[in-house]
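Ticket #4471: structure output looks truncated?

Reporter: J.K.
Steps to reproduce: submitted the chain below (232 residues) through the standard prediction queue, then opened the result file.
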Amino acid sequence: MYHILVVDDESRIRAIIRKYAEFEGHQVTEAGDGMEAVLLCRSNSYDLIIMDIMMPELDGFSACREIRKISQTPIIMLSARGEEYDRINGFEVGIDDYVVKPFSPKELMLRVDAIMKRVNRPILVPGQNTTPNVVVELDGGGLRADVTARLVFIDGERVEMSPKEYDLFFYLLNNRNIALSREKLLCEVWGYDFFGDARTLDTHIKLLRKRLGRYSRFIVTLRGVGYRFEGV
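Returned output as attached by the reporter:
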């Protein structure tokens, strides 16, 4: 089904992932460190990469930065630590998901399927206006979003976001003034039905607020529920 590059300096971890991935019908290529992963990505194409953070030669974060220069292949990062810093750093360098060790191989495969299902799939909302050049302006045009082109401008300056930050922003925008639970956002934006990690969502909300600057006030936290994008 998919060609997966598994990058980890522990052969045992690579073997476990290979076993479950091949059982699901996927093809697996292994790399023992970040440097090898970058070299493989320069000469080969993969559908998805599963990569550890702590590795010799080149760590996962550095390898991801290099890979993102030549490819937008989805990346799932593995880590023995669950610190928020690792999550934020990972998402900022362009990873798609973050899994803490020890992990369930079955859940990892579900995350692989969820990511691949949404690759290149636009986030659509029932009843959403899909007319070309749909533009939403808030706060007198200070915050401007071109829904069709997936562009965001703050005070006339374009805001750069990761693909997942764009997905989350436009889903919130298209559902503004509606209370959205964490489960709903994980399901619609990440494709996780029952196994999503709410910390992944919360970290992306934090990054999105950082991108929006003074307009971050539009994203309101609903304690115990989720979030709401407030705007007319």
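Triage note (M.O.): checked the attachment and the full token line is present. Confidence is low (pLDDT under 50) at residues 122-132.
Status: closed, working as intended.
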